[in-house]
Design goal:
heterodimer; A: two-stranded antiparallel ribbon; B: alpha+beta
Amino acid sequence: MAVVATPFYRLRTVCRLHWKSWNDEYVVFDETSGQTHQLSSVHAFVLHLLTENPHTQSPLVSALLLAIPSADAFTLTEQVQSVLRELESSGLVDVVLS
Amino acid sequence: MILADLSHAVMRQRLCGTGLVLKIGPFAFRIISPIPSLHADLAVLYADYPLLSDDQFVDFTVTIASGTGWHRWFHRQAVFCFDGSDIFVPLPQDHAFPLLEWAMNWCISMHAHQYLLLHSAVIERNGCAVIMPAPPGSGKSTLCAGLVHRGWRLLSDELALISLTDASISPLGRPISLKNQSVDVIRNYVPKAVLSKLVRETSKGSVSLLKVPTEHLRRIDEVARPRWVIFPKYVAQSSAQLTPRSKANSMLELGRNSFNYMVLGHTGFNVLSQVIDACDCYDFEYSQLDDAVAVFDALAKQKVRA
């Protein structure tokens, strides 16, 4: 029987992040790459959770739903997918298969 | 002692010999050059700058030499030499004075990592600085020149020198580089303006440098606090208008406009964060200098009331 691997997202181990925010605007500086990234609230929320622990997509969506109860679950799922792709392409997050 | 205290003969002798040491903002430059057109413009535009003795510490030695390649038989050239190396390609000899200015910019931007360096104009009023980063052609220098002749103090036209310890901005106080139509705009706007000889067909078009008002040089040691980040843009026929912009995006734009943000790493991030913390950030469109001055003056008055 085939086992489908679940992707876990985690902060890249080499990243050393420093945060700065103004109201709902965020920037994060990665000391290792020297890159500074501008983040939306959702990007910042997801990245912050991933700095604490690796997660699959599902608990990230659940956490976001708790933070924004009025949001639509389907829309948030799509949004988290997109945010994870962007964080991965920025070199802040990588994917491991369980 | 200032440069104007030297006779032209002694100035020429020093420039052609061991060099002339000038205090320019926080830096000491030794300038060496045998090129007469450079001597003439230097004598006028740097007349009020402190002259240092030959044995004082010098940050940068800038040599603008005559070209020695085969080209010299057809077109006389000027070459920027730094520590024995030619840094830029040789230019026609009548470009010598703008070349000296570009050479000084290069020296600071490549070496002065005791500051966070932004490619930006900076002006000041009541101790509060406006940082004006902008790409070439945006009207930054024209706006800067107009404002410094209507009550604002010039800290720099090209380079913001931001302290790594307290984010204050040190004046550099060098001539303002005007290009193409801006030269006539400022000649009309400031009839008493002192400008260097117009040099045509440089890589930036026609260039002339505007002398810094003497009273601004007297205050060259007075630092200022960053208070506004304003991205100016000349737009023909537009009315002068400030539009608030994102702090996070302004920080990223300033980082892109910096010569050494990446070099400074975490320190650069902290200093730039402090700057943005302290500043209101705007985009600014303008077409008429008088209207632009009115908007900036209103901003300064708001600050005084606050």
